[in-house]
Amino acid sequence: MEDKFAELEDRLAEITDLSQVSALLGWDQQTYMPPAGVEGRGNHMATIDRILHLKRTSDELGQLLADLAPLVNEWPPDSVKTRLVKVTKREFEKRTKVPVEWVEEFARLTTLAEQAWEKARAEDKFANFQPYLERIVDMKRSYAGFFAPYEHVYDPLLDDFEPGTKTMEVKAIFEALRPQQVALIREILACPPIDDSFLHQHFDEQKQWDFGVQVITKFGFPWDRGRQDKSPHPFTSSFGVNDVRITTRLYPDHMESALFGTMHEAGHGLYDLGIHPAFARSLLGDASSLAIHESQSRMWENLVGRSRPFWKHFYPKLQETFPAQLGNVSLESFYKAVNKVQPSLIRVEADEATYNLHIMLRLGLEISLLEGSLLVSDLPEAWNSGMEEYLGIRPHNDTLGVLQDIHWSVGLMGYFSTYALGNLISLQLWERIRQDIPDLDEQIEAGEFRPLLEWLHENIHQHGSMFEPQELIARVTGSRINPDPYVRYLTEKYREIYGI
After folding, report:
1. What letters, b where the CB count within 10 A reaches 16 and e where it falls short, cover 272-307?
2. Which residues contact 499 (CB under 8 A, 6 or more apart)?
């Protein structure tokens, strides 16, 4: 049977290699590929995804899993062998339900849709993207149908990103969380607004880039195993434990975008770079889930990057970088400005107090699209009305509204809730980290991030996808996803900042 397990590892190594090649093509499309190459790239992606699907669902792989099944009960439940067989079996059973023709067509469609989205966003013409999105929604409905019967049509999509999590479970978490966040936001907005006018000046883009690089180098981002480039929408791609790439975007009059976006993507990158080297070319070499992944990016961006101890260390350096803009601005004024609560149109620029409301809106829209109660043609108005209901503001065009996120164009439906769940998880982990590293604030103020990164490597990163997300959280914190630590954090932080 050792030969059978070795054969399984060999097959999975080949599958992982092809998957990472596909990811590399996706990274290139969003960074350096010339626009006219999109049709050819669609064919590349369709071909590779077809080959991948056939290998992931082959009779030979199914037989290997059947042969190894009797041994799983003999191996320790948390052994690498047991977990690898379990993860492979789960993936095999899901993917064998999906026809290869669907996979190939969807890969081609989303490659074309991504370019159509970029153009529609630049020109503020949702109608030009609409037919692509209609086809994507139709194909996602058919995808969900492959897994019927289900409790909810959205469940199969959510399960792709959060294994074992159900739609009703997420909705219940959000329904408990939303009124608490809304009440806090109302308290804050009743206070005098924080002055952040000094942030809306010209900041040299190269200096922004260099400062961001300086910060994430301190975090521990290893440049011999990673790189950073520019893209229309920041993202992170992993092509193995020694090749992880992040991107950012820069605006001359909005320094925070690149500053916090770089920290955010570095958090993703540090997770991928921290997965145990033994899981290279293995299905265990991925993150536990997208929410766990997001907990890492939001932790470095917000819990570290928007904290007072962080800026006690880095603000003098930022003032040296931009003396004309920030030389006369106090640390306290700057700290309050980068934590200002103000409902805004753009999700990735949203403050911590309002961010989750953006996600709740998108989740509701996705569910309605999949249920068929919302037509794609009505999506812009539904988006604008939802923004007005949730945040009290209304986009004046679709570029700032329904076209702002890349996710739907690349077929990522079922994904958005992971952003808010990641926020909740980050605080559950943070409370445990504070117990284990009681002088954490002092370390951050001194610019020392190694103990924090080592804790994350030990407790989260190294495990890859050995454990399902709720299981991993419970192992580390003692409970499943719980919004209470997040609500405590927001309440304490913002009442202090606003003097409530």
Report:
1. bbbbbeebebbbbbbbbbbbbbbbbbbbbbbbbbbb
2. 191
Name the H helices within 32-166.
38-56, 59-72, 80-95, 100-123, 126-145, 155-161
- Could you identify the residue written with the tokens 């006219």? 36
pLDDT over 70, % of the chain: 100
CA distance linking residue 87 with residue 466, whole number of Å: 8
Q: What is the DSSP string of 431-486?
A: HHHHHH-TTHHHHHHTT--HHHHHHHHHHTGGGTTSS-HHHHHHHHHSSS--SHHH
Q: What phi, psi does 234 have (nearest 5°)?
A: -55, 140
List active site positions: 265
CB atoms within 10 A of CB 62: 14
Q: Cα separation of 40 and 63, whole Å? A: 36
Torsion angle, alpha carbons of 422, 239, 272, 349, to 10 = -40
- Per residue in 124-145, pLDDT (tens digit) is 999 999 999 999 999 999 999 9
Regions of the chain short of the pLDDT cut 50: none
Q: What is the mean pLDDT of the chain?
A: 95
Share of the chain above pLDDT 90, in %: 94
Q: pTM higher than 0.85, yes or no?
A: yes
